[in-house]
Amino acid sequence: MDMLVIRGGQPLRGTVTVGGAKNAALPIMAATLAATGTTVLHGVPELVDVSTLSQVLRSLGMTVERRAGGALELTVTDDQPCFADYELVRRMRASVCVLGPMLGRRRRACVSLPGGCNIGHRPIDLHLKGLRALGAEIRIERGYVFARADVLRGADIYLGGSFGSTVTGTCNVMSAAVFAEGTTTISAAACEPEVVDLGNFLNAMGAKIEGLGTPLLKIEGVQELSAVEHEVIPDRIEAATLLVAGAITRGELEVANIRPEHLSAVIDSLRAAGATVELHGTRARVSMNTAPRPIDVTALPYPGIPTDVQAQLTALLAMADGISVVTDKVFPDRFMHLPELMRMGANVRREGACGIISGVARLSGACVMASDLRASAALLLAALAADGESVIRRIYHLDRGYDRLEQKLNLVGANIRRVTDAPENLPASLHLSTEEEAVPTVETSDVPPAPKFLSHPSASRQHELKDTARHG
Ligand code: UD1
Fold it and tell me: Are residues 348 and 393 in the same domain?
């Protein structure tokens, strides 16, 4: 297993280019199960999650090949298999995206339930509700979803849940409804750009979906989808992570290949926190030369701040000049990064679906453990800004979702090394000897000063924070 060793404190300067969106590429790849012919996808990032889904698709009778130049070619060679095994699906929740296209095209599907996840409870009840409404018989047995439908019929489906819309649920139901007889409407559909990209891809193949990007989709069923060539949209989460990297290191970073309209909420938050963000077509230039201002951030379905950027913004606000409240209304338990940020000197605590972040002037490098994909990104950002060296373990989470992130960051001034996770690879600065651990008399010059809290909440503000924490 690898770990990252980061020497912090370097402002990032230069231009860095965003790759294709993981969360668009995965459902689009899954939808090729329903295509006749060879699909060619451009901009599919090279990620562990993409390799995992490729294996799932191969097990379902497809060939998946990366061509020289990077395009991914996918062809159905056998449309009989319908079994997605737990051993593959458990590695990546998004494998559940094969359910809708497989049921739509092959009329039966047996897909392992994805199981638990570090960012909180992630049921698929809404996916199943939508597919049942189309006429599928669904039962859950021995950890698998068994779905079949001799005929799928258009229906009016409400897909909203307690936490809003569902992204992969909308993808699944939309991909099956494309083959349903008659008209389907999906209300409370997810409006995320990744859902729109999937819808555009399906429409290019011959589907008839209207209302993409709105909560109301109207779908006329068709008989067949013909393979096409498609370019996946840029990854707005990678873009947001890079923008925060520019701001948190007090650098001046140009982030290329973005769709600014997909990043409105993130850019608004960065500006509110004091960063300068200039937009030039498909590029954004971020700079920051003071401590961030504290802001309150709430992760919401699109076009709100993405839950997938909540942890990264939390890392930025950990160094703000005051107190911020970060709330996650999509995954209210997604705060595993807080204890690890505390190891770096952050002053944070959790109250229900909120993190209360009291900014500190400096973070100090430490050994930390990544718990999930975006938490790893947040720790990497904090490490880039921290004094001294940091080590991030369990970075396989990062590799699931970011294509060569450390190489990209190193090209703009970061100092990140990927090494085998072994005691001898720990930086000397983090390797306290037994005597040092027993008697904390380390040279003061080696250790950053204790975090300085720049301001404390007033009594009324404290009351407000508690109130927010209680009522969400
Ligand atoms: C997708 C993204 C993930 C992102 C999330 C929210 C992919 C591959 N993953 O995940 O990166 O963090 O959207 O933007 O695109 N819910 C239910 N019942 C369901 C489905 C979801 O209650 O059947 C709840 C979830 O527990 C969560 C909320 O709805 O609280 C949103 O989840 P959802 O949009 O489905 O997330 P994913 O599609 O799994």
Answer: yes
How do residues 114-126 score in pLDDT, each as one tens digit? Answer: 866 678 788 999 9
Q: What is the pLDDT of residue 424?
A: 87
Q: Indicate which residues carry an active-site annotation.
A: 117
Q: Which residues line ligand 1 (CB under 6 A)?
A: 23, 26, 93-94, 121-127, 161-163, 166-169, 194, 306-308, 330-331
Asked if residues 24 and 233 have their Cβ atoms less than 8 Å apart, the reply is: yes
How many domains does the chain divide into?
Answer: 2
CATH of the domain at 131: 3.65.10.10
User: Tens digit of pLDDT for each residue in 173-197?
Assistant: 999 999 999 999 999 999 999 999 9
Nearest-CA residue for atom 20 of ligand 1: 124
Do 6 and 102 have their domain in common? no
Domain residues for the domain of 385 are 2-18+234-427+446-471
Residue 210 backbone phi and psi in degrees, to 5: -115, 155
- Whether 238 and 224 share a structural domain: no
How far is the centre of ligand 1, averaged over its atoms, from the C-alpha of 452 (Å)?
37
If asked whether residues 207 and 315 sit together in one domain, one would say: no
Indicate the residue among 200, 216, 231 that finishes a domain.
231
Mutation pick for ligand 1 pocket among 168, 235, 400 (CB with most ligand atoms within 8 Å):
168
Residue 243 lies in a domain: yes
Which atom of ligand 1 is the closest one to the Cα of 190?
Answer: 34
Ligand 1 centroid–CA 33 distance in Å is: 22
Q: What is the pLDDT of residue 459?
A: 46
Q: Is the pLDDT of residue 314 over 50?
A: yes
User: DSSP secondary-structure letter at 302?
Assistant: T
Q: How would DSSP label each residue in 63-129? A: EEEEPTTS-EEEEES-S---EE-HHHHTT-GGGGGGHHHHHHHHSEEEEE-----TTS----HHHHH
Residue 423's pLDDT band, with cuts at 50, 70 and 90, is confident
Shortest-distance Cα residue to atom 34 of ligand 1: 166
Over residues 360-411, the pLDDT tens digits come to 999 999 999 999 999 999 999 999 999 999 999 999 999 999 999 999 999 9
- For ligand 1, the distance from its centroid to the CA atom of residue 224, given in whole angstroms, is 28
Closest CA to 375 of 352, 409, 344: 344
Q: Write 201-209 long-range contacts (CB < 8 A, 24+).
A: 201/28, 201/31, 201/228, 201/230, 202/31, 202/174, 202/175, 202/178, 204/228, 204/230, 205/35, 207/178, 208/178, 209/174, 209/178
Please tell me the residue having the least CA distance from ligand 1 atom 25.
Answer: 122
Residues 176 and 312 in one domain: no
Same domain? 69 vs 203: yes
